[in-house]
Amino acid sequence: MAAFVVFGEALTLGLVSGPACMAACGPVLVPSLLSEQTGFRPHLRFLSTFLGARLLGYLLFAAGAWEIGTLVSMLPASRLLLMGAVNVLLAGVLLWYAYSARQICGPSCSSSKLVNIGTTKDHRVAGAAVLGFLTGFSLCPPFVAAGVRAAELGSVAQALLFFFFFFVGTSVWFVPFIGISCIARNQAVITVARMAMVLIALFYLSLGIAMLMGRKVYGY
Amino acid sequence: MATEACSPRLAPATPRSILRALLLTLPIAVWSLLMFFHPGTHTDPKSRIAATMTAVFMTVLFFMMMRTRKTYRWRRWFFVSLGILFPIGFIYNLVLARGTMGIPIEEMIAGRTPFCFLAIPLLIVPAALTKTIVFPGSITASGHAIAIMVGLWLALTLVLGKGWCAYACFFGGIEEGMAAIPPRARIRKIDPRWRYGPWAVLLAMVLLSFALFEPAYCMWLCPFKAVTEYVSARNAVGVLQNVIFIVLFAGLVILLPLLTKKRTQCSFFCPFGAFQSIFNKISIFEVKIDRTRCKSCTVCQTACPTMSLSKESIARGETLLSCMKCGACVDACPQQAAVWHIKGTEIAWKPERARLMFLYGAWAMAVMFGGSIIAQGLVTILHFLT
Fold this sequence. Notes:
heterodimer; A: mainly alpha; two-stranded antiparallel ribbon; 68% helix; 2% strand; globular; B: mainly alpha; Alpha-Beta Plaits; two-stranded antiparallel sheet; 18 helices; 4% strand; disordered N terminus
């Protein structure tokens, strides 16, 4: 019964904080989805990869949160460094993604392969996975709240389950993103998406650098 | 056959008679008087002088448009004056009211900043639902006042489409003035993909605004913060924001227009321009290329200040979605193939009548929005001179 209450709490926390998660992931998710192939299948594949990797990020964070004890005890300087590093990495991946998406085929293309990033054929990875993983590390207020709660639980397994249910709750809000598959792709849409990605990457980069320099931005 | 039927237009545009031009100017003259001399205004001589100068200026320009049948060069006089006089009046009032151009972040969050029309597209839905403006702006009146303001903008935009950017925007004039200075462009070959820039900025800024719960464009990217109100540089982030504003202003509004003879900020960056472009689909007025006359010389393409014509669009007989109806291509075309057009009519159907119908609406808007700003700028100059 107690477990049911705790995981119900995680699910509810995820459901109510979903819009904040959706807004936080929007700048990463929308342009990258727009630079993929049109159609339901590629979008479903993209979103499941993105969310799967995000879950991995969540679970790693949950394990870390439980191991550290509580996020509150995490020094502000270390928190800034962590967020700065995540932002710089996110910016780098977005720039790479924008570059890799240049060869996307036109509307007649039947391939549903995702945009891959990487230097060689053997070391390529779906951009959606990397982006999902990095956004899974976002220290937004509901995420920190979930982290603090998870840290109070008795075992690492419980902390992981707590974050899993929290993830399920937030993921419901990502379903509408599948609607982007209705937007027909042409060179103009893909170019706009890639340009927007570069702009957003530059924003995250400046934010990340400021944080790495120890400057507080947006309360982090 | 169609060419023969339209052949009189191939003669150089002959000026109208003075009497006819005066008659056509009469409605605008009356409108200017109504706008600048309604009862209870101009209690001091400086504002009376400024109002008179503005009313005469706007009426004379319209008269010249009627007399010469040319649009662009006369509109440009108004537009550049607007661009120069807006910061003068605005900065003076800002310093008078606050003692500084820098606005602290807490003032912005509280909405105690001057209102900017760039925020309009982002406030419609929240204003309709909550009767408040979510973006910074000093209009804190009732929902009724907000509805009137948005309604006015919407009505004008539905009629004129992106004409707003050529007849009402008080930001575009500086770059248009800069673009007019050099005799020819130093940079002529511009990758057409830059035309997608405003859409990318719009997409990025809408998404970041949702993520950060703040007007990301106003906080980070607006080039015109350099000549209006800027973020108080109280920390490293504030300094960075102001550096971005100044670099964007210097690059997009000063340097690139000088090198390209194009309105580069409007063409490659302005998210509001992208939003306005959508309304070109609805507006009944447009500029078309009469294929029966066009010799594909691309003079219109070179003349267009916003790169709203491409070889492909000329071949299709139309301008791109970003056309702001400034009339540069119509005035430049040696074949008179670029014509003003009302949707639903045949392309060669009385283009001068279409121009007149468009110009009455556009110039009335110019007098209403731009005229009052010009008058305010003149009052400021008179204040310093006397």
